[in-house]
Amino acid sequence: MTGNYVLTDARLATMASSDTPYGLIEDGAVAVSDGRIVWAGPREKLSADNFPWEQRSLGGRLVTPGLIDCHTHIVFGGNRAMEFEMRLNGASYEEVARAGGGIVSTVSATRTASLEDLVQGALPRLEALIAEGAAVVEVKSGYGLDLDTELNMLRAARRLGNLRPVTVKTTFLGAHATPGEYKGRDDDYIDQVCIPALRAAHAEGLVDAVDGFCENIAFSPAQIERVFKAAQELGLPVKLHAEQLSHQGGTALAADYGALSVDHVEYATEDDAKAMAASGSVAVILPGAFYTIRETQAPPIDHFREHGVPMALATDCNPGSSPLTSLLLTMNMGCTLFRMTPEEALAGVTRNAARALGLADRGQIAAGMRADLAVWDVETPAELAYRIGFNPLYTRIHEGTQ
Ligand code: DI6
Ligand code: FE
C-alpha cells in the first residue's frame, strides 16, 4: 500500500500530546498522502469529501507510531559468544582479555571486515528490529578506531538504510575506546585519529550526530569536550554515553553542549537531571546493557520524571554489553527493571526516541508527521510492554509504504 489512502477501524495510540493516556483514540482513522500523515483523529470526524481515497479497515487493531531504536551499534565484525561462554565457565576478566576477548576483539574483527561483510553482518540485526515494527534505527561507528574503518562502518550504516525500508540515522562514535596502537596515549588518539576521522566522515556526508563514551575505562570529560568542540565547528549535534559505570560528570558537559541525549545514565544525580531538563536533553535508558553486565544501580527515573526530562528506551545493540535486537523486550525491561510505566515505555521508543535523534516529524501519529506506523494484534498498548518474547506485529508502514 502506497500513495494516498485512509486507514480506518483502528485504535490509535497516537503518542501525541493529549489528555488521554497514550493519546488514545478508540475508533480512529489516519489519512496518508505521499508518505505523510495528513489527518488523524476519530473516524466519525473523518470527511470522505476531503480524503476521497481508498479506505482500508484495520479490523480494530492497535496502531502506534513506527518504533524508533535511537541507540544501536548494529554494525560490527565477529561476535563475542566465545567470551560469554568463557566467563560462564569461570574465566576471569583477565583471562578473557588474554584470549583476545573484549572490545579489542570486535575492533580487530571490524577492521578486517569488508564494507560488504559489515553490511551482511548487520542485516539480520536490522531485520530483527524491523520485524518488531522499527521504522527508524540509529547506528553508531566506534569499532573501527582508525580513519578508514570508522568511515567504512558509517558507509555500511548508510547502505543498510538503502537496502531495507527503514530510516537509518548515523552517529560518529570515534571516542568509544582507545585502540591498542594508542594504548596509554588517549589524548593523541583523540587529536590524531578521532577528530580527523570525524572531519573526513562529515565531509563524506556520513554523520548525523557525534557521540562519545565518557567513563573511567574510556574518555574523560575534558577529552570528550575536544570532540564536542570539533562537532560544534561542523554544526553537528552531540550526544553522550555517560554515567554508565561511575559518575564522571559527562552529563553536565553534554547538557552544556545542548546534547540531543545523554545515554545509560545509571549513575546520574538529581543535579544531572536538572541540567538535562534545562538543556532539553533526552535520557536514553538502556536496560539491555544493565541486564547483561548485571549492573545493580538503576538510573534515577524518579528524578527524570520529577524534573521533566524526556525518557527514551533503546536496545544499545552491541556485541559486548547488549546483544539485544528486540525493542519490545527493551520496553518490558524498562518497566520490570526500572519501574517505568508501559506508557513511558511506548513514549520511549516513539516520541522521545525521535527527539533523541533530533527528528521533529517522527514518533507521533499526527498531521504533518511522516507516515511511519506499526499495526499490532493487541487490544491495549500496555500489552506491548507486558509480554516477554512474543511479537504481535501485524504490519508496518514506513513513510507511507507498507
Ligand atoms: N558502553 C557499553 O556498554 C559498550 N560501549 C559503550 O559505550 C560496550 C561495548 C563493547 O563491549 O563492545
Ligand atoms: Fe552504546
From TrEMBL:
<dbReference type="GO" id="GO:0005737">
    <property type="term" value="C:cytoplasm"/>
</dbReference>
<dbReference type="InterPro" id="IPR006680">
    <property type="entry name" value="Amidohydro-rel"/>
</dbReference>
<keyword id="KW-0408">Iron</keyword>
<dbReference type="GO" id="GO:0019556">
    <property type="term" value="P:L-histidine catabolic process to glutamate and formamide"/>
</dbReference>
<feature type="domain" description="Amidohydrolase-related">
    <location>
        <begin position="62"/>
        <end position="381"/>
    </location>
</feature>
<feature type="binding site">
    <location>
        <position position="80"/>
    </location>
    <ligand>
        <name>4-imidazolone-5-propanoate</name>
    </ligand>
</feature>
<dbReference type="InterPro" id="IPR032466">
    <property type="entry name" value="Metal_Hydrolase"/>
</dbReference>
<feature type="binding site">
    <location>
        <position position="73"/>
    </location>
    <ligand>
        <name>Zn(2+)</name>
    </ligand>
</feature>
<dbReference type="Pfam" id="PF01979">
    <property type="entry name" value="Amidohydro_1"/>
</dbReference>
<keyword id="KW-0369">Histidine metabolism</keyword>
<feature type="binding site">
    <location>
        <position position="143"/>
    </location>
    <ligand>
        <name>4-imidazolone-5-propanoate</name>
    </ligand>
</feature>
<feature type="binding site">
    <location>
        <position position="320"/>
    </location>
    <ligand>
        <name>N-formimidoyl-L-glutamate</name>
    </ligand>
</feature>
<feature type="binding site">
    <location>
        <position position="321"/>
    </location>
    <ligand>
        <name>4-imidazolone-5-propanoate</name>
    </ligand>
</feature>
<feature type="binding site">
    <location>
        <position position="176"/>
    </location>
    <ligand>
        <name>4-imidazolone-5-propanoate</name>
    </ligand>
</feature>
<keyword id="KW-0378">Hydrolase</keyword>
<dbReference type="GO" id="GO:0005506">
    <property type="term" value="F:iron ion binding"/>
</dbReference>
<feature type="binding site">
    <location>
        <position position="71"/>
    </location>
    <ligand>
        <name>Fe(3+)</name>
    </ligand>
</feature>
<dbReference type="InterPro" id="IPR011059">
    <property type="entry name" value="Metal-dep_hydrolase_composite"/>
</dbReference>
<feature type="binding site">
    <location>
        <position position="241"/>
    </location>
    <ligand>
        <name>Zn(2+)</name>
    </ligand>
</feature>
<comment type="pathway">
    <text>Amino-acid degradation; L-histidine degradation into L-glutamate; N-formimidoyl-L-glutamate from L-histidine: step 3/3.</text>
</comment>
<dbReference type="InterPro" id="IPR005920">
    <property type="entry name" value="HutI"/>
</dbReference>
<feature type="binding site">
    <location>
        <position position="73"/>
    </location>
    <ligand>
        <name>Fe(3+)</name>
    </ligand>
</feature>
<feature type="binding site">
    <location>
        <position position="318"/>
    </location>
    <ligand>
        <name>N-formimidoyl-L-glutamate</name>
    </ligand>
</feature>
<feature type="binding site">
    <location>
        <position position="241"/>
    </location>
    <ligand>
        <name>Fe(3+)</name>
    </ligand>
</feature>
<protein>
    <recommendedName>
        <fullName>Imidazolonepropionase</fullName>
        <ecNumber>3.5.2.7</ecNumber>
    </recommendedName>
</protein>
<feature type="binding site">
    <location>
        <position position="316"/>
    </location>
    <ligand>
        <name>Zn(2+)</name>
    </ligand>
</feature>
<keyword id="KW-0862">Zinc</keyword>
<comment type="function">
    <text>Catalyzes the hydrolytic cleavage of the carbon-nitrogen bond in imidazolone-5-propanoate to yield N-formimidoyl-L-glutamate. It is the third step in the universal histidine degradation pathway.</text>
</comment>
<feature type="binding site">
    <location>
        <position position="244"/>
    </location>
    <ligand>
        <name>4-imidazolone-5-propanoate</name>
    </ligand>
</feature>
<dbReference type="GO" id="GO:0050480">
    <property type="term" value="F:imidazolonepropionase activity"/>
</dbReference>
<feature type="binding site">
    <location>
        <position position="71"/>
    </location>
    <ligand>
        <name>Zn(2+)</name>
    </ligand>
</feature>
<feature type="binding site">
    <location>
        <position position="316"/>
    </location>
    <ligand>
        <name>Fe(3+)</name>
    </ligand>
</feature>
<keyword id="KW-0479">Metal-binding</keyword>
<keyword id="KW-0963">Cytoplasm</keyword>
<feature type="binding site">
    <location>
        <position position="143"/>
    </location>
    <ligand>
        <name>N-formimidoyl-L-glutamate</name>
    </ligand>
</feature>
<dbReference type="GO" id="GO:0008270">
    <property type="term" value="F:zinc ion binding"/>
</dbReference>
<dbReference type="GO" id="GO:0019557">
    <property type="term" value="P:L-histidine catabolic process to glutamate and formate"/>
</dbReference>
<comment type="similarity">
    <text>Belongs to the metallo-dependent hydrolases superfamily. HutI family.</text>
</comment>
